[in-house]
Amino acid sequence: MVNSIEQALQNVRNSLPDDEVLKEQFELFVKMYEKKAKRTDKIFKQSDRQQHLLIELNNKILQQKEQLHELHTYNISQQNIGKEKLEATIVNDITNDSRLDVDVIYHPSDVLSGDFYSIFKLKDGSILAYILDGQGHGISPALTIFAVSSTIASLVSVVENFEELVEKLFPMIQKFLGEVEQLSFIMLNIDCEQEILSYCAGGTYPVFIKLQDKILTIKSNNLPFMDFSMTPSIMKQDIKGWETLILYTDGLVEEIENILDKFHPENLLEDKTLFEKANNAIVQNNYEDDITVVKISKKA
Fold it and tell me: What is the value of pTM for the model shown?
């Protein structure tokens, strides 16, 4: 290609008339052409290098995308394993109780839940029902509630009563909490024979109890638990003639501006048919918060 161009230029030179001005103009043209040709060649080479770099960059992006997909898949699989392990530790000792019925809504907003609940029979025959609500969503609160719930499960088999459980539990779980991490909790102890409720709660919405002629409201009597908190105080309440009680996390009532409005906890106490409808509504909608509801009723 280069030789053919040079030969063509030489042919033009040979064919030019014997005119110095014309020859000078031609040589000037040739120099301008060669300069532009070199510049064009440089541009093409730079373009080739850039194209090569873009291809390398694209290949690296595709490789990283594949690696991210593998990491995401692995992460989800590990979270699902964690979810199975966490939910496997949920205890419900009154499933076949002759005195009580229990209904539960347990709906994590993500794979791992920051909520947890369990129901135990204590050594003295009373019922312990609790809900934990870890701060935030995802792995961190899930690890916290797993540690706390495991500690509760280990203590239930050795303590004599609710008071001893609370006294031993909270000093132990302080070390599970981060520097500014909060744990909201509801712990109810039901003496079915005396119909006395002992409770300690911190940072949660009220527990509602349906009596024969009214609905009783039990408010939190402690602040959310933190790594520097004192052991929560316990209060007692006479619940003679109680029929149903309901405890829940904030996810239920903080969604009440939408479809959950009609499923307010007090409504769930009054209308037995609403509980299943509430569960279905929660499953069908993608809410941003974990939702846990536990309803315990005396059998007729």
Answer: 0.77
